[in-house]
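Morning F.,

Quick status update on the modeling queue. The single chain you submitted on Monday has been processed. Sequence for confirmation:
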Amino acid sequence: MRILITGGAGFVGSSLATLFKTTYPTAQIICFDNLKRRGSEINLIKFKELGIGFVHGDVRNPRDLEDLTGNFDVLIEGSAEPSVHAGVGGSPNYVIETNLIGTLNCLEFARKRVDRSIFMSTSRVYSLAPLRAIPLLETPTRLVLDTIGPQSVGVTHRGINEEFPTNTARSLYGATKLSSEQIAQEYAHTYNLKIIINRCGVIAGRGQFGKVDQGVFTMWVANHHFGQPLKYIGYNGHGKQVRDLLHPRDLFRLLEKQLEKAAAVSGVVYNVGGGQGASTSLLELTTLAQVATGRQTNISLVKETPAMDVPYYVTDNSKVASDFGWQPEFTVKSIVDDIADWIAANESMLRPIFGGP
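Structure tokens below.
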């Protein structure tokens, strides 16, 4: 089996590459990445140890893909500029060229040389205004869903499902991903390309070099460990905004099941996340991070809410659970503990990335 993972040196890509290689030792895994994100180069050491191939290339350049040798059984298209703030206050060129043109280049490569593909999309395809309009109640530690009526399209007691609106502004990042989904579906229809589309929520775990704009939950644990300050940003600075977390191991288990049925569900979109059982507010996460690291840090309050932020997103996994018999197993606590263990074991290597005395 030959597997190509674009964005393969990033957190999700490298995690999946490691899991595929350790689960299927005879498989040939090739990770393709431009190494733009700081910290991604560290994963090359692990690739060498495990016998995972690496190609330094850029999805924006179709020649880089064409120069790859041979055909592949599986493509996991995980390349992306992943920040929801990408292009805000500056040029949108990189996010559009990477997330839209890059995906088109990957789809064209898959049309010619790949049997089955997974496109890693995002929950950020859902429109900002409807997400902000979801009725919520404030509890002592988090925001929760209020009464869900017939007007709440795409919202269930489990969270957000695939019917939620995507027809108004979402972000440049979300727009490029939504456009890529639609092109992927056209390739499935026109060329019989076997491709599944996963709209993932927050993915977190060991090996993530988290920042405020992407990977904030890992950064939250790291800043507790290294004594770096944090901020509750937006919604009056209470830290009660909510997300669900998905561990790469749970994602990997799903991909295994999906690849077995790729032909039957080609072009289908799935919401994929940790769900209600793995949801947390920043306030709740702080307590877990304190316990996992045994340390505290200063957290300041910023009342103003960033333009791209939403108060609540939890994945309704009903559709993907029904089609593949899959449920995430990791809880928020087990994810936080996993991150804390990784940081403690690699403190000297990670200090320059996360900062700290």
